[in-house]
Amino acid sequence: PYKPSQVSAGSQPDFYMMWTDGLIRLWPAWEFYPFGHTIPQGGWVAVGMGLIFMLLGAYPFIEKKLSGDDAHHNLLQRPRDAPTR
Q1: Which residues have CB under 8 Å from 64's CB, separation 6+?
Q2: Is 27 within a domain?
Q3: Would you say residue 76 has pLDDT above 90?
Q4: Which end of the chain is more exposed for a tag (fewer CB within 10 A), N or C?
């Protein structure tokens, strides 16, 4: 159960933001100051989330390129018509 007195942030995130809120709480408090601008700790979590979603979207294309598989894959084929798939 959620107890607001046990956490540093006095808010509870929505269910779809819990993994990002958890990453922000677990991530070390690294701050960088390039060219006089501050990049806070939460910025690195946002960059990490962007990379994760980018890799998830690019995975089918990367797998196709690395495996050299150009065949048509019909996922609705009956198993008896393609027993070795």
Answers
A1: 70
A2: no
A3: no
A4: N
